[in-house]
Amino acid sequence: MHDLVSRAIEKFLTEQSVSLEDRAGTLPPGQLLHDAARNLDKPVDELAEDLGAWLVQQEEIWRLLRFCGRDFLDFLLRLEELPDRIRLITDDVDIPEIGLSRGDDGLLWVTFTDGSPIWTSLLAGLLRAMADDYGTLCVIFRQDGGLCIDVSDLAFAAARTFHLSARGQGR
């Protein structure tokens, strides 16, 4: 079940020039992240957030995510569908269900059911990278059990061009 996640973490750590132990392939994903964070002298939540941002840079994952919304707000409003979209591709990832709510103050709250704090950090990094991709100015911060998102400007910068088909399109 953890093979796909472990391979992605190993690729991320290798691209970040983190030396991996010979037994890295046998470690569960959470342990792999904790060991790498300890070796980097970096909090594991920061490393998980970096991993989330790195995932957006992977073409296949980026396409899956960009297909979820025409702008960042639309993307956020469809965030609850993300676990099911991931399950369409692989059942190797045990992603918790995602809940989204909007407070009276206009802030968006993202929560997880039965998720570890690593999921919160990973999603924070992923959402920050997607906000940049959409050209949106926002503040995303972790709270107990989830994330708080304050969208200031949906059209702060030009969004990266997205075409449904990857054929003939440069990224």
Radius of gyration: 16 Å
Q: Tell me the structural class.
A: alpha+beta
CATH class categorisation: Alpha Beta
Helix content range: 40-55%
Mean pLDDT: 83
Quaternary state reads single chain
Protein name: Heme NO-binding domain-containing protein
Pfam family, one: HNOB
InterPro entries: H-NOX_domain_sf, Heme_NO-bd, NO_sig/Golgi_transp_ligand-bd
Organism: Paracoccus acridae
Please summarize what this structure is:
The protein is of the alpha+beta class and 171 residues long.
How would you characterize the overall build of this protein?
The chain is α+β, with helices and mostly antiparallel strands and 171 residues long. Helices cover 46% and strands 15% of the residues. It has helices spanning 3-15, 29-40, 44-56, 59-66, 72-77, 82-89, 117-134, and strands spanning 98-102, 108-112, 137-143, 146-153. The chain has a 4-stranded antiparallel β-sheet. The longest helix has 18 residues, at 117-134. The mean pLDDT is 83. InterPro entries: H-NOX_domain_sf (IPR038158), Heme_NO-bd (IPR011644), NO_sig/Golgi_transp_ligand-bd (IPR024096). It comes from Paracoccus acridae. This is Heme NO-binding domain-containing protein.
